[in-house]
Amino acid sequence: MASLQNRNGSYKLTFYHQDRRRYVTLGKITEREAEAKAAAVDYLMLRVKQGLVEIPPGVSVEDFVIADGKVKDPEKPRPVATNFATLRERYLSTHENGAIEGNSLGTIRIHLTHLAKTLGDGFPMAGLALGDLQRHVDARVKMKHRGRPISPETVRKELSTFRAVWNWGERMGLVSGPFPNKGLVFPKTDEKPPFQTREEIARRIARGGLTKAQTAELWDSLFLTLPEIEEMLAEMKTTAAHPWIYPLVCFAAHTGARRSELIRVQVADVDLEAATVLIREKKRVKGQRTTRRVPLSPTLVRVLREWLAVHPGGPHLFCHGGHVERSKKRSRTTGHQNGPDRSTSLKGRLATVVEREAPPPAELTRDEVSDHLKRSLAGSKWEVIRGYHVLRHSFISNCAAKGVDQRLIEAWAGHMTPETSRRYRHLIPSTEAQAIASVFS
Predict the structure, then answer these.
(1) DSSP alpha helix (H) spans, 96-225
(2) In sequence order, which residues have a C-beta less than 8 Å from that of residue 262 and are 6 or more positions away?
(3) In the chain, where does the domain assigned CATH 1.10.443.10 lie?
(4) Which of 32, 106, 148, 164 is the most exposed place for a label (fewest CB within 10 A)?
(5) Are 428 and 226 in contact (CB under 8 A)?
(6) Which string of DSSP letters, residue by residue, matches 24-80?
(7) Residue spans in the chain of domains classed CATH 1.10.150
(8) Quick one: pLDDT at residue 111?
């Protein structure tokens, strides 16, 4: 119920909306006028609560009350004539300042490039309709990438990116209205296979009938058991070309950290006495860099202690020190000629080659850590490991199989979608076999 306060002849009215106290100043009016206004506000708020009257978007409840509910929708600025290329470039240039992580911004560029091939750079955004988006869906699902059909889920992600760009453009006055994606029709998708051991995948492949793409998808669902992780790490220790490779892979296997998180870890983030490490995140909270604290296993503590004893220096935990053979920026020599204009004689080609000063310790790149993982495992039984995500799968799967609380797993591994969490809720086959045998023995 509205109430009145009289301060030196000036009335202030208090009322409630959505369980919050609101105030409006009525000014110097008579007591009768103030009471009449209070009664009118009570009646107006009752009609709003009953759903008989709506407060227009963009209008504050205080302004609505002062106007006795007789306000018009605020006029929105008319968007300028914007084509697809303009919207894309404005969005990318605005977010290149670090608002979006580099990896994510790269993915956005790829998504928008595919959309540009369907719509065209000059497509007017004012004319975007459901049919235009459906045309993109129909065209993309017929395409292939590296011999594999484009997944409908990939196309969904492209349109999700476009929707985010559109919503930003609406706030900037570049486009108007809701994104016209309601009613889009996508082909059915197959659920991703559950995470499986190496033996399970090998048996499935041996039964035959799988395409090359299906076989690759199976290996993407690989997770290693604890004995397999130890065996793989032992192999890695003997084949690694650089001293940082083994401790980095061990770190990935024992923490479940993502590839980008491995690269960002700094020496100061590691507390060997408390056996913890601070993982620097970029995606968990929009617009904010966050961290999570992960415990270190005794094995990993020992490996990191040995690595730090020979660490080349610099802030990053894993880094290059000195020269790196066959590297464009860290090789021992520079000035090598290439291209059609290079000298035809060995003497002429060597004339421009000079010794390079030993470079300082440098942060690793995504390509470097991926390439050296592949090189270190090439020719072994572990070359089926297709990236660091396998070690993340293995970490989470082994924690789940050991009965670690799901809340702890998510705290250690970082954010996971409900769909991903469901894929991780499994046991190692031998554990499942023992469980069912205990029931029907």
Answers:
(1) 102-119, 130-140, 152-171, 198-206, 212-220
(2) 248, 251, 252, 318, 369, 388
(3) 198-312+364-434
(4) 32
(5) no
(6) EEEES--HHHHHHHHHHHHHHHHHHHTTSS-PPTT--HHHHHHTTT--PPPPPPPPP
(7) 84-171
(8) 96
Alpha carbons 157 and 73: distance in angstroms, whole number: 34
Q: What is the Cα–Cα distance from 392 to 401, expressed in whole angstroms?
A: 14
pLDDT at 78 (0 to 100): 53
Cα separation, 103 vs 389, in Å, equals 15
Token pair recorded at residue 388: 């660091």
Residue 125's pLDDT band (cuts 50, 70, 90): very high
Q: Which pairing describes strands 291-295 and 276-280: parallel, antiparallel, or unpaired? A: antiparallel
Answer with the residue of higher pLDDT: 363 or 115. Answer: 115
From residue 258, how far is each of 251, 272, 396 by CA, in Å?
10, 21, 12
The predicted model gives 188-209 an average pLDDT of 86
And the tokens for 273? 């006495």
Which of 95-104, 196-205, 405-414 bottoms out in mean pLDDT, i.e. has the lowest?
95-104
d(CA 106, CA 112): 10
Token representation of residue 78 = 């008319």
Give the torsion sign (CA, 151, 152, 158, 161): negative
156 with 136: CB under 8 angstroms?
A: no
Q: Does the pLDDT of residue 323 top 70, yes or no?
A: no
Q: Which residues pair with 21 in a beta bridge?
A: 16
C-beta separation of 427 from 403 below 8 A: no
* Confidence category of residue 391, pLDDT binned at 50, 70, 90: very high
What pLDDT sits at residue 140? 94
Q: What is the DSSP letter of 358?
A: P
Give the span between the Cα atoms of 275 and 213, in whole angstroms: 41
Q: Work out the number of other CB atoms within 10 angstroms of the CB of residue 34.
A: 20
pLDDT, tens only, 16-52: 888 788 888 888 888 888 888 888 888 888 888 888 8
State both tokens at 15: 């009322």
Q: Please give the CATH architecture assigned to the domain spanning 84-171.
A: Orthogonal Bundle (1.10)
What is the rounded average pLDDT of the residues 97-116?
87
Axis crossing angle, helix 226-239 with helix 366-377, rounded to the nearest 10: 100
**CA–CA dist 255, 269 (Å, integer):** 14
On the question of pLDDT at 263 being above 70, the answer is yes
Q: 198-312+364-434 sits in which CATH class?
A: mainly alpha
7: amino acid identity, one letter? R
